[in-house]
Design goal:
- This protein has about 260 residues and is an alpha+beta fold.
- The chain has 3 domains: about 50 residues, no CATH class; about 120 residues, Tetrahydropterin Synthase, Chain A (2-Layer Sandwich), CATH 3.30.479; about 35 residues.
- The chain contains 6 helices and 10 strands; from the N terminus they run αβββββββαββααβαα.
- Helix 3 packs across helix 4.
- The longest helix is centred in the last third of the chain and has 38 residues.
- The chain is rod-shaped and about 125 Å long.
């Protein structure tokens, strides 16, 4: 009988325990609803028969910002800009952050864990991304992704430092997932490129025509060259007739016969 009682008590205790997983930190809430700010470390089992345990992810938290429309340096508004900010929380700061910062700064994930400072960082990161994009013209934002990512992280970190949160929160990565300039800006750029290509093609045509004109001018300035070309043409016609390649020819009214050229 005693063994059964002990077994039942063991089951009750184990079923009333909360295990802190890797990458998390816990805080105990007493039966009086008071939060103990001593952090519960990963791997520990904590009874919840009396009171409860709150869990907080602290590593590699992904903050997603979609459908942003920042203004660029040339006063154009981007059609879309999407970024992801990865941040971590100092485990030793969890108790202080949760008990001293507004609950509106936090959110809960799909596991019902409390994600500290998520809502706060959403606002800060959005402002930082807008500021970073504003340094570039619309068409250059695509090639400037790395700089926008770096500047966004820098501006977020500076904002955290102003609030004395830079030792509690760390920005580990910013990724620009998508940048799309306004459609009219892209259309204008394509029109400019097309016009430039057409201009280059016309310039080539002009250069060819000029060189041909120069060639003809040079030939016409030398009477002997003209006579040679006429004679060569007549000889080519004669050879064509002889070989059966020419069925008929038009003879000019002043035709004086065919002479041999180059012999």
């Amino acid at each position: 009988m005693k063994k059964i009682v002990v077994l039942l008590l063991a089951v009750a205790v184990l079923s009333g325990c909360e295990r802190i997983e890797t990458g998390e930190v816990g805080l105990r809430v007493g039966f009086d609803k008071q939060v103990n700010t001593t952090e519960l470390q990963p791997g520990s089992f904590n009874q919840t028969v009396i009171g409860s345990v709150l869990t907080f992810p602290v590593r590699d938290i992904a903050l997603v910002l979609d459908n942003m429309h920042p203004q660029t340096a040339d006063n154009s508004t981007l059609d879309d800009m999407d970024i992801t900010v990865i941040y971590s929380i100092n485990p030793a700061a969890v108790g202080e952050i949760y008990t001293t910062k507004s609950r509106a700064f936090h959110t809960r994930d799909e596991s019902n864990d409390i994600v500290l400072m998520y809502n706060y960082l959403t606002t800060v990161a959005r402002s930082a991304a807008y500021k970073a994009a504003a340094k570039h013209d619309a068409l250059k934002t695509i090639s400037a992704r790395a700089e926008i990512e770096s500047d966004t992280a820098k501006y977020i970190t500076a904002a955290l430092a102003e609030e004395k949160l830079d030792t509690s929160l760390t920005i580990t990565k910013v990724q620009v997932r998508n940048i799309q300039p306004a459609g009219n800006i892209i259309a204008s750029a394509n029109a400019v490129i097309t016009a430039q290509n057409n201009l280059k093609a016309k310039q080539v045509e002009v250069d060819i025509a000029r060189k041909e004109a120069e060639r003809l001018s040079l030939l016409s300035s030398n009477g002997q060259n003209v006579r040679y070309m006429e004679a060569k043409a007549l000889q080519d016609i004669a050879e064509g007739v002889k070989e059966g390649k020419v069925q008929s020819i038009v003879v000019p009214y002043d035709f004086k016969g065919i002479i041999n050229v180059g012999k």
